[in-house]
């Protein structure tokens, strides 16, 4: 700005016959200088405010960028965690399937073993019954002979 409040305050005007009243001009120029000083102070305050706001906007943009990067990183981590959880779930499912198959195999073997034991028990029962029957028949035959004997 080419004109300052001091320029206005101390401006000299040439005096001519029947010119302006010097005192009135000086008072007016003093008021204009004061208003100018106020406007300049306000202008400087506004410039500082603008600069502070621009700095804040830059800081917020930087923070926004960091937040965007953090969100992208969080999304990536979430996808990785989901994929890992799916892999672990599949592994657990396969292990459960293998365990089920092993339990079924063992159960079938146990069933086969129990059927074999049952069959042996039936055979032993039949053998025992035939032995007991033969023994009883032997005793009966011996008793009949004793009864017939003189």
UniProtKB/TrEMBL annotation:
It is found in: Cytoplasm. This is DivIVA domain-containing protein. The keyword Cell cycle applies. Belongs to the DivIVA family. The keyword Cytoplasm applies. It holds the Pfam family DivIVA. InterPro entries: DivIVA_domain, DivIVA_fam. Keywords: Cell cycle, Cell division, Coiled coil, Cytoplasm. Residues 29-149 form a coiled coil.
